[in-house]
Design brief:
Elements (H helix, E strand, L loop, with lengths): L1 H25 L10 H8 L3 H12 L27 H8 L9 E8 H7 L35 H17 L3 H19 L3 E2 L5 E2 L7 E2 L5 H9 L7 E8 L43 E8 L3 E6 L5 E4 L3 E4 L5 H15 L3 E7 L4 E8 L5 E6 L4 H7 L12 E5 L2 E6 L1 H7 L13 E4 L5 E6 L5 E4 L6 H7 L12 E7 L3 E7 L4 H4 L8 E4 L9 E6 L5 E4 L6 H4 L10 E12 L4 E7 L1 H6 L14 E6 L5 H13 L9 E6 L5 E4 L6 H7 L12 E9 L3 E9 L1 H6 L13 E4 L9 E7 L5 E5 L5 H7 L13 E3 L1 H29 L4 H23 L10 H6 L15 E4 L5 E6 L6 E3 L6 H7 L13 E3 L5 E3 L1 E3 L3 E3 L8 E4 L12 H19 L2
Parallel strand pairs: 11-15, 16-20, 21-25, 26-30, 31-34, 35-41
Antiparallel strand pairs: 1-2, 1-5, 3-4, 6-7, 6-10, 8-9, 11-12, 13-14, 13-15, 16-17, 18-19, 18-20, 21-22, 23-24, 23-25, 26-27, 28-29, 28-30, 31-32, 33-34, 35-36, 37-38, 37-41, 39-40
Helix pairs in contact: 1-21, 1-24, 3-21, 5-6, 20-21, 21-24
Amino acid sequence: MRADYASAFALAGRVLVALWIALVLCSAPALAQAPNAGALDMFQSLPPDQQRALLESLQGSQGSEADQPFTQDEPGRQRPLTAQPTPEDQRRLYGPPRIQANDTVLLDLRLAVTEQQKAPQAAPAGPMAPGAEQRPGTETTAAPARMEPVPEDPVRAAQAREELRQRALRLLPEDQIKAFEAAEELRRQAMAANPYKLDRYGQLSVPGLPPIALAGLTEEQATERLAREPAMELLIVKLTLLTLEPLGVESLKPFGYDVFTLRPGSFRPATDIPVPSEYVVGPGDTIELQLLGNTKGKYNLVVSRDGDLRIPEIGPVAVAGLTFPEVQEAITSIIAEQMIGTRAVVTMGQLRSVRVLVTGESEQPGTYAVGGLATVTNVLGASGGVKPIGSLRNIELKRNGKLVSRLDLYDVLLRGDTRGDARVLSGDVVFIPPVGDTVSVLGEIRRPAIYEITGNTTVSDLVAIGGGLTPQADPASARLERIDPERGRVLINVDLTTDTGRNTALRGGDILRLDPVRPTMVNAVSLQGHVHRPGSFQYRPGMRLTDLIGSVDDLRPNADLHYVLIRRETGPERRVSALSVDMARAWAEPGSEADTPLAPRDQVFVFNMDAGRERLVAPVVEELSRQGQRSDPPQTVGVGGRVRMPGQYPLEPGMTVSDLVRAGGSLDEAAFGGDAELTRYEVVNGETRETRLIEVDLARALAGDPEADVALQPFDFLVIKELSQWSEQESVMIEGEVRFPGRYPIKRGETLASLLDRAGGLTDLAFVEGSVFTRQSLRDREARQIELLADRIQRDLAAVSIQTSQVMQGGAQSAAQAMVAGQALLDELRKSEPVGRLVIDLPRVIAAEPGSPNDVVLKDGDRLIVPRQSQEVTVLGEVQGGTSHLYDRAFARDDYIGLSGGLTQRADSDRIYIVRANGGVEAASRNRWFGRRGNEVRPGDTIVVPIDTERLPPLPLWTSVTTIIYNLAIAVAAVNSF
C-alpha cells in the first residue's frame, strides 16, 4: 500500500516542482539569468513532456506552418519512387501544365493586412515613425509576443479573423481605409464566383474587372499576372488550375482523327508484297534480271531517266510507261531472239519513290517522297494526318489538275472498304478540304463521338455509324437538339422504333441524345430487409405474399413474423400506400385474406427484432407525408412508450390500436397492460386544431375486442404506459474485508447497512475507518467540475498572456513565469482521474438502524471497499522527504512532519491539512482560546503540506486546484491499493 501511495503522490508532486521552478525564476532579476543548481536538478527530474512545455513557454512560440497563407515544398525534398509517375515526376519531365481555353481555375484571395498581422511582430519601443499617424480614439501598443491560436470551430475562427482584420484596420491611416474596404469588397465578390471557367479565348472574367488573358501561362505565372492587377494590389492572390474531366457533350471527340496518332510506321507502305499487274514501270525502278543457259549472269538494272533499261550485250530497251507484265514479256522475247540458248527470268527489285504534294487541312502539309505502291492513306500518315478542322470524308486525289478519286476514310475505318484508297503517282496532289457538317451522338450508344455527315444522313445512319445502341438504350425516348435559324435551339423527340423517327434527316450541329431505359421494373416485386436473398423477383398474376416468402427459412434469424410492411403504388399517379401482414398467419392460412395478394412494383420489408426499423420505415413515412393535402391528411400514425420499436408508422386502411402495437414490435417487459392513452388531433370547421385524449383498454384491445380496439386516424399517437416503480436491475459491488464479497443485486431503496448484513458483516481485520465508497454519479460530477475548472484556468492563462504584452519588463517576467507554472498545473489537472468518492462514517452506518438518517441509500453502480487494518501515516507535499511512517499514538501532526525532514522554504505552514482515511479533510486552525485543532493523527491518515501559492498573484485559483489534485491522487491511491 505504501508503494501505491508513493506512485500516486509522485503525479501530484510534479505539479509542486513546476510551481517551485516558477517561483525561483520569478525571483531572478531578468529572464536571461540562469537558475541555481537546485532549480536545474529539479527541472531535470521532471518528465520530458513537462520539460518541453516549460521550455516552450519560456522561449515563446515560433509560429506554425498553418499560419502561412501559402506553403511550398521544401527545396531538395525527395519523394519515394513508385511504379506510377507522380504529378511531381510529370512536372519535372514535361514542365508545369499550361492554362488553356475553357479550363477551370480556382481563386483564393486574402486581404494583405490580415496576413501581415498573423505573424507575431514586436512594435518599436520608441516613438512613432516619422509620417505615421494615429487615428483618433486609438492607442499605440506593442504587438503581443505570442498570438493566440485560431480556434478550430469554423464560426469562432471566422469571428477571430474578423476581429484580427478590424484590429489591423484601426492601425491604418484614414486615406488607406477606403482602399482596403474596396479590396475587401472585390475579394468577397471574386470568392463568391468560384470556380471560374475561362472563355474560348483563354480569358478570365472576375466580377468588377475587365477580362484577363491567362492562356498559355502556368499556375505560378497566372498568379503573378493577377497580382499585378492594380485592383488586386492589396490582396494576396493564389490561382489553382483544376484538372476536371469533361462530361456530356463536352467530353465528345471527333471520330477518326486519333487513327493518325498511332505508333510510327503504321501507314508506311508495304515493300514485301508482289507487284500488282497494273503497276507501271518508270524511271528509278529496279529490274532484277537472271540469265540461264548458255549465258549465265544476274543483274540489277535501273530504269534510266529516259525510260530505258540497259541490258548487257543487248543494249537499251524502252520500258517506261509499260506495266510490269509487259516489261517481263518484252525482255524475255528480246533475250530469246538475240541470245540463242539463253533463258531470262525477270523480277521486280526495289521500287522507285514518288513525290506527292499534300495540301489543305493537313497537320504538316508539303511534298513527301513515298514508295511506288503508296496509296492516299500512306500519304496522309506520312504527313501527320488530318487536322480536326479537316474533312475525313471528302479527301481528293488530283493528277495533272484533274480529280482522280475521292477517299472517304469512314469507309476504311468503319467497314474496312479500301476501294477508294487509290495509289499515287509522282506529281499527284492530295487535297484535304475543310470538314463538312458535323453531328454529335451521346448516351446509350456504343461509340459516342462527333461525326461528319455527307448528303442526306438520317438518324438511323448516325446510329449505325456510332456502332449501334447499347442493350440499356431506350430507342423510343431519343432526343434531338437542333439549332434552328429562326427559333434558336429546339428539341425534337425521336422515336427510333418507328420509320418516321429513324428517317429523320440530320442537320449540321445536331446533338442526338439516347437515354437508358427506366430503372424501375414493371413486372417485378421487391423484397428487402432481414431476409437471406433480398432483391427483385418476377411478378405473376395471382401472386401472394407466401409465393414470395415461402417459409421461415427465407428469413434471417430473429425476424419479425408478425409485422411485414408492403409499400404499394396505385393509380396512374402512382400514389403511395402501405399495408402490413402477419406473416405467421399467412403461412398458417395460405391463400386466405391473411395471405395478401401482391401487385406489380410492390416493395416488401421484413424487419429485425434486434435492430430499429427507422431505416426502412422512414422513407415510406416521408413519402406519405409529402403527398398529404388539406383534404387528405398524411396517412401516418405514431406509437411511443414501452414498445420495442417506437416511432412513426404508415396508417393502413382499417388500422386499429392492436395493429399499431404490432407495428411497434409488441409490448416490452416494462409495459403496463391495463390501459393506454391515444392522442388525437382533429381540425374543427377548418379553423382550429384540437387535441383529444382517448383512454384505451389495452388488454381488451389486444385480446381482440372490437369495441376496445379503437380505429386510428391520421396523426394519432398511442402512448404505452410503464409499470409503476419499474427500473432496470441495479447492483452494487462490495469488496475487501467482508465475509462474502461480490456483486449484489439491490432492491429499490435498499441501504448500505442492509447490504452489509447480506454480505455477512465485516471480518476481524477490517479497517472500518479507511473504507472507500464510490458512486458513478459523483464521478461524472467531478469530471464536469474538473473540466470547468480547467477552462477557468485556461482563461486566466490567456489573461496572463495579454498582461505580458501590456506591462513593463519586470512585471512581464513575473507574468510569464506564472503562465509557465499555470500551464504545467493545467496539464496535471486535465490528467487527473475523477474517483467519485463519497465520504462516509462506516462505523456509524453499521451501528445505525437500516433506513435511519445515518444510513446510506444505495444506487446502481455503487462500490464499497473495506481495506485491512492500516498502520501507516503518510506525509506529502513541501517536506524534505515525503514518505509514510508507522503510526504512533504519542505523535502529533508536527511530529510526523519532523520525521519527514521538516518543512521546506516553499511550504505554506498556515494551510497544512490532514486527509482522513475515510476521505474527509480536516484543516488545522489556530485559536488563542481553543489552541490548535486538527493536529490529531490517526492510522491511515495523510498529512498534506501545500506550497505557498500567494507569491504568484496572477492565478488566484492555484490553492484550490493544487488541493483538488492532491485529494484526487490520494483517492486514486486508496482505490488502487486494494
